[in-house]
Write a structure and sequence with these properties.
The chain has about 150 residues and is mainly α. Helix content is about 65%, strand content about 0%. The protein has 8 helices and no strands.
């Protein structure tokens, strides 16, 4: 099923659709913003920031930009004591560290898969159970009722 991406305030249906998958949530501008806010409240926003940086990195065409973007991702998220250090296993971290001098568009793929899996299995279900998400769905459902039933 194709994911609709929009640049207007999400409807109740779209907000409810975020619960279908982490992909649906990440592909929706408002869903991504809500998820980022939730992750910030849990002090784990580095995961979605890393994932987004990798998505942007994979679209890079210029070889000089590949090197500079790779180094930025490495220094922000991978290296020891990075300001937004992500939690990845030693093997993956070592592999990236050994290959960062000659980066490819796929050099962060393993780490990105790990972080995606962590978000999908851990952060995403907690987001769906959060009061913030439930409140957002409730507000949008109430807004839709008022639009169709102005006497409420």
């Amino acid at each position: 099923m194709p994911v609709k991406c929009c640049f207007h305030r999400s409807s109740a249906g779209e907000t409810m659709a975020w619960s279908e998958s982490v992909d649906t949530l990440l592909a929706n501008k408002d869903g991504l913003a809500a998820f980022r806010t939730f992750l910030k409240s849990e002090f784990s926003e580095e995961n979605v920031e890393f994932w987004l940086a990798c998505e942007d990195f994979k679209k890079t065409k210029s070889s000089t930009k590949i090197a500079s973007k790779a180094q930025k991702i490495y220094s922000d998220f991978i290296q020891d004591d990075a300001p937004k250090e992500i939690n990845i296993d030693f093997h993956t971290k070592t592999h990236i560290s050994q290959n960062i001098s000659e980066p490819t568009l796929s050099c962060f793929d393993d780490a990105q898969r790990l972080i995606y899996s962590l978000m999908a299995k851990d952060s995403f279900p907690r987001f769906l159970r959060s009061e913030a998400y439930k409140e957002l769905v409730k507000k949008q459902q109430n807004g839709n009722q008022k639009r169709w039933l102005p006497f409420l």
